[in-house]
Write a structure and sequence with these properties.
alpha/beta; 19 strands; single chain; 390 residues; elongated
Amino acid sequence: MKPLEILNKSQSFAIIGMSDNQERYSNKIYYKLKEKNKTVYGINPKGQYYHNLKEIQGSIDVAVLIVNPSIGIKYLNEISNLNIKYLWIQPGAESEDIITQAHQLDLNVIQSCILREYKATEIKAVVSDLDETLLGHSKIVSPKNLAAIQKLKDKGIKFIPATGRPFYSIQNTLKELNLFDDDDYSITFNGGMIHHNASQKNIRTHSLDHNTANWLYQFGKDKDVCIHIYLENETYTYNLNEDEKHHLKNFPSIKEVNWENLDHIEEPIIKLLYQNTNIPYLKSIEKEIPNHIKEQLEISYSSNRYLEFNPKNVNKGMAVKELAQILNIPTHQILTIGDNSNDLSMLKVTEVSSAPKNAIKDVKEHVTYTSSKNFEEDSVHDILTYFKII
């Protein structure tokens, strides 16, 4: 039987290595099984729980090891003597000695994560960053990632792009993924807009205060940066350098300008950013921005080349929550995937989150799982496989 089938068909579980600490996986698994109406016993010789398996009066279907392998191996004979049907070994509790001895005792061994097995059945939507996460340098979805996302769709799980880019610039990706059903949406401009893919209509817009955008533009003109000014359907650049021109070669509607200010722009300015491949330099610029300006802004970094400015509290996390309400999907049933600081807000609003190997340190420290694959190595496929969603 598959691990999830064993969870569903078994009734009684003994958690070996139980802890009162709510941050420990043993505690989380204990209460997840309780939530599923299972009979659960905690085993910990030093705690308030059962000191060993023999103290338990009822039968046990599954013994779950969530302890150091040097401790866990001491329970194997007891598990065998009590004729416990399954030995479930959580990640981190395994060792070659445990596996060898368990097989010698004819124990039925399962190596998986209980929380991950259950979570796979609960995910209703996957929200993923595009550049440096789903997309490689070619900006084309790889065959492996494409097949993985098609499997999601076949299971009725939504796939939602969440990007810092404008909606018009991701049309090729939407076509590759065929995301044009009535309930397909995209998060763009770092949450500045939410678009309905099929109709091409924006259903949420959060734009910068025009005076603030104008201040940022004139402030940036004195720095060694390329400035991007984003309207809904056009992007203007000031001081476009050759490196950035090459980086933008696959993006349409980029227009070079040499404006004195932004007074003549009547449309909403959704986002503005500074570009320089020297991130420490960009961070030094951020420090120069006065507090009364910063207080109006959501500031983030992306692609190891951009310092981005959105209106205060406008970010991908806010957009995920807005879209969750539209789709009537609770945020705990959404998996988020991202690699940089402009993704952190959405990675924090969902219970399960992940990142490719190339993600920045702050992202890796927060997410549930960091893939061993980078964005050029089908990391999204790896992540969906790890969580057993496909």
